[in-house]
Design goal:
Blueprint (H helix, E strand, L loop, with lengths): L1 H8 L4 H8 L5 H17 L6 H31 L1 E9 L5 E2 L3 E4 L6 E3 L2 E7 L8 E8 L4 E8 L7 E5 L1 E2 L4 E7 L10 E4 L7 E2 L5 E5 L7 E7 L6 E6 L1 E8 L4
Parallel strand pairs: 1-8, 10-16
Antiparallel strand pairs: 1-2, 1-5, 3-6, 4-5, 6-7, 7-9, 10-13, 11-12, 11-14, 14-15
Length: 248
């Protein structure tokens, strides 16, 4: 095409211009190059036949306009695309459940669908790294779970979240005597996990893995030589327990 145009206008640098044009692929680059060619034609001293102008419009400006339109439409379509993330939640034994609370790292309420939940996420709001975290919980059973997902080309991804006991919570408190004086050196443990027993510090305080979810009741055991051992229920979490030991 450019060879025809340059033959009509007898531009001396035709080979080099053609070589440059063959390496241009982006519509904007092609448009800029076409404008440069047209300006070169306009500034030449030769009379330009009407057929050349027709070829310019048909073979240069037309395809560029079409390419620009396609490119713009593509970007608009990408922006309007929606990820429909399907989520299935299963209990520890692998049984699917619809009795859970489900939420994601980018907000938005999921809608209930057959077999689980669905998040509708516009592609334009996708995180820069494309990473999405989806969480699920059954507070009444002290079960939690999460799953990571990379939002990429698939607009209809599916994930399964396996619930498990929430056991990263701690239980804390203090051991005192009847006069509210701290008892250092007392051994405190969660019943069933005696190997994790800790000795209370100078102020009588202790911190232990609860092996339970937040607010779930755990049974604490405290003992020290010269005192009667005590077992006491207390909810896991940040609210401190107060264990009172009495001398024998």
């Amino acid at each position: 095409m450019l060879t025809i145009l340059l033959t009509f206008t007898q531009v001396e640098s035709a080979p080099s211009i053609y070589e440059i044009a063959s390496r241009l692929t982006h519509p904007i680059s092609l448009a800029a190059f076409a404008i440069a060619v047209i300006l070169g034609i306009l500034t030449s001293k030769k009379k330009i036949p009407a057929g050349v102008w027709f070829l310019i419009g048909l073979l240069v400006l037309g395809p560029i306009a079409i390419s620009a339109y396609v490119e713009t439409t593509k970007h608009r379509s990408d922006g309007e695309a929606i990820y429909r993330v399907r989520v299935t939640v299963t209990e520890p034994q692998g049984t699917p459940t619809d009795d859970a609370r489900v939420w994601s790292s980018i907000g938005g309420e999921p809608k209930k669908v057959a077999g689980g939940w669905q998040f509708d996420i516009p592609r334009a709001t996708r995180p820069k790294d494309g990473k999405l975290a989806v969480y699920a919980a059954q507070p009444n059973k002290f079960l939690v779970g999460e799953q990571q997902l990379l939002l990429a080309d698939d607009l209809n991804p599916t994930i399964t979240i396996s619930l498990r006991p929430e056991n990263h919570v701690q239980v804390r408190g203090n051991v005192t005597d009847k006069r509210n004086r701290a008892i250092p050196g007392a051994l405190v443990s969660v019943v069933g996990y005696a190997s994790e027993a800790v000795a209370t510090e100078e102020g009588g305080n202790f911190v232990l893995p609860a092996h339970a979810a937040k607010d779930q009741q755990v049974l604490l055991h405290a003992e020290k030589s010269g005192y009667a051992a005590v077992e006491q229920w207390h909810p896991a979490g940040d609210f401190p327990a107060v264990i009172v030991l009495e001398r024998r």
